[in-house]
Design goal:
By secondary structure, this protein is α+β, with helices and mostly antiparallel strands. It is built from two helices and four strands, in the order βαββαβ.
């Protein structure tokens, strides 16, 4: 099972600068052109599966609007001696 991640965007902070979109190494972020934040910006959203939870989007976000979550693959259980 591969490492999977997802993000949450605080729309009260997101200003649609697209830095997260530009720096996403797996290209799964975009601006939501259908919606506007209360401040009138198009917020960032996940548009495809494949987020690895690398946190680059959160690191480059000047507003601190992105929280990244990551689910690592489960550890293998040791087999019992026969």
């Amino acid at each position: 099972m591969a490492v999977t991640g997802w993000i949450e965007v605080n729309e009260a902070l997101c200003k649609g600068c697209e830095l997260c979109v530009h720096y996403c190494p797996v290209h799964v972020l975009a601006l939501d052109e259908e919606r506007l934040t209360p401040q009138g910006y198009h917020p960032a959203v996940l548009v495809a599966e494949g987020c690895t939870g690398c946190t680059l989007c959160a690191v480059v976000c000047p507003e601190g609007a992105i929280t990244v979550y990551r689910e690592e693959k489960p550890k293998r259980r040791a087999r019992a001696a026969a």
